[in-house]
Amino acid sequence: MYKLLTTILIATFFAGFTQTVSFKALGPGAVSTGDAFYLQYQVNAQGSNLKLPDIGSFEMLGGPSTSQSSNIQIVNGNMTQTVTFTYTYTLKASKEGKFTIPGAKITVSGKEYTSNSVVIEVVKGTPKTNNQNNSNQGTTASPEISGSDLYMSVILSKSKLYQGEHLVATVKIFSKVNLVDLGKFNAPKFNGFLKHDLSPDQIQLKRENVNGQIYNTAIIQQFILIPQKAGKLTIDPADIECIVQYKVNSGRTSLMDEFFGRNMKNVQKTIYSSPVTVDVKALPGGAPDDFNGAVGQLKLESNIDNTDISTNDAITLTYTVSGQGNLRLIDPFEIDFPVDFEKYDPKVVDNVNITMSGSSGSKSFEYVIIPRHAGKFTIPAVTFSYFDPASGTYKTLKSEEYTINVKKGSGDEEATVITGVSKEDVKYLGKDIRFIKIEDYSLSKKDSFIYGSASYFLSFPAALLAFIVILFLKKNQLKKRSDIVYVKNKKARKMAMQRLNNARALMQSGNEQFYDEVLKSVWGYFSFKLNIPLSDLNKDAVINGLTTKNIDGQYVSKLSEILDKCEYARYAPTSVGGGMQEIYNETLKLISEIEGKINK
Length: 600
Hints:
By secondary structure, this protein is of the alpha+beta class. It contains eight helices and 33 strands.
């Protein structure tokens, strides 16, 4: 205990020397004529000689009253202390208009600081009725709360946009009554949208001028929405429970009743927002061949760590897409590496942030390649196309082309490296030893020829038959490769397993990106397996696709459960029930079972 107190005193002593002085002014954004309000100045250090600015047409009713608060927090052995000194003035608005109160000045440790200015809008007030005549008429009934006194709206940052473009939906409450508490909130249904929650740290009331009326307003919740299909999409109403307090006039009212709030009564009221419609425009035709659903304002960069290298040494080639848009839906590039290069699956680095401005940041793909032969090789430029909603056009970006000079590595002078299908099929020529044969062997006569023999004549139809079979198989293989749906269907499980392997590695290290990787595995699998374009990929489309293929409802329910768990875990402060291992096992089982059902 003694050590803890000593630590606090020492830290408090040094905090006075190291902290940055903050001096700010606080006031309402809007008031009505005749209303009294508080103008506050807060400073995080002991100050003196506070100089109040000219308050203009506002009337000074009282002040300053001073208060002090202190807060000490110790987290993981690190201590922080916050001290706030508050100076409060009471003002009255008497004139309509928009007024600016300049910054005040205060002196801290011999240095003068200036606060920010405060802008206050004053609107015409509502005349107050005289209730004295009714004060002795007994208890009044519960007042009717009109839709203009208390309501909730879903406010959109834009109502017309392209498919794949983002918008912000803000659920906001407006009140002219005494709102003392908020209860259960049911968010709107966002059918046809991808959704990301942007919940406020805490709900704060603020005064605003709405069409000439003063309301206490608060943001309940905000959402980033990305429409997944074109057309007019409707956002269903939200609802919230409100606790409103009103005054009850009774025949006998005393000061004690006023002090203890005995003449106040609470009433519960549920309010609903109105449905709103979003007009989603389809992406125009004429998309480039390499367009894969990317929408936003993006740029492409590439980097290679070495272009002069020895055989069997590794090269890292990185492609980075950055900017603002649906970055998380971008997949690794298909790069036509030289056949002499061994390549590995790319490492994906996701640095995407979702804020009020939408999805922004970068997504990188790191390719590790190993040249097996000496020589001069070219890695062709990569093209990447996206749709820019600002200009309404498709844009194509092109990376740099790289020339790689590969020389023989040490110890390779007498060996030629030949790579086959896999890493194990590597042969070294020029270093083998041919042993002397010591077992018995037979010799054939020099004049023994195959020409004219039965084997000779049978070889012709056998060769012709083999040629026909090979030609048929090759033609069938080319036909299957040209069928994109067939190729994607066959690659679906392999791609999903690669994603799940990445997810397992993240799970073992406790990395929260595990949930993103599982979602990518599930969405990618069903996009390939059910031939759903990324632009149309959503839960409803997947469920419809599974229903069309007569997949049991239990698998659809399990799919929804996995998606909900992952989405919740990405934003929840703690892990979902069951943990990563359970989600991983369920996803692996689901994909394996559906694969078996679809391929029957």
